[in-house]
Structure to design on (118 residues):
């Protein structure tokens, strides 16, 4: 398989690096703020164990990332006429693609199930 780099590839990569860095920083600040403001009464709201749901969701997400990284391909690619063989980055790219697809399918299934259940 052979890919050719677009004209603004470097600019797009730097914009993605900046966007990911900002997203990680905002997520970190949000998590710290939420953990500081959380009280014991927030664990169960209206009979719904929201703390357990939050930890289960986070754990399933991390498990999904780990499984999709392990199942990711490390098959070398030809990019810009050069062979790209970094196993870590090849598997990481597949991890993000597969995890995104799984989460999108999960959202569609959740919407459909909720629609027909109500």
């Amino acid at each position: 398989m052979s890919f050719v780099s677009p004209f603004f590839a470097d600019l797009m990569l730097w914009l993605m690096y900046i966007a990911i860095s900002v997203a990680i920083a905002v997520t970190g600040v949000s998590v710290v703020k939420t953990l500081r403001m959380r009280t014991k009464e927030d664990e169960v709201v209206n009979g719904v164990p929201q703390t357990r749901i939050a930890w289960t969701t986070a754990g399933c997400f991390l498990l999904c990332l780990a499984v999709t990284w392990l199942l990711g391909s490390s098959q070398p690619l030809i990019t810009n006429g050069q062979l790209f063989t970094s196993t870590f980055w090849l598997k990481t790219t597949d991890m993000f693609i597969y995890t995104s697809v799984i989460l999108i399918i999960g959202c569609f299934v959740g919407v459909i199930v909720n629609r027909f259940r109500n």
Summary: The first helix runs from residue 9 to 37. Residues 108 and 114 are 10 Å apart (CA to CA). The chain has a mean pLDDT of 87.
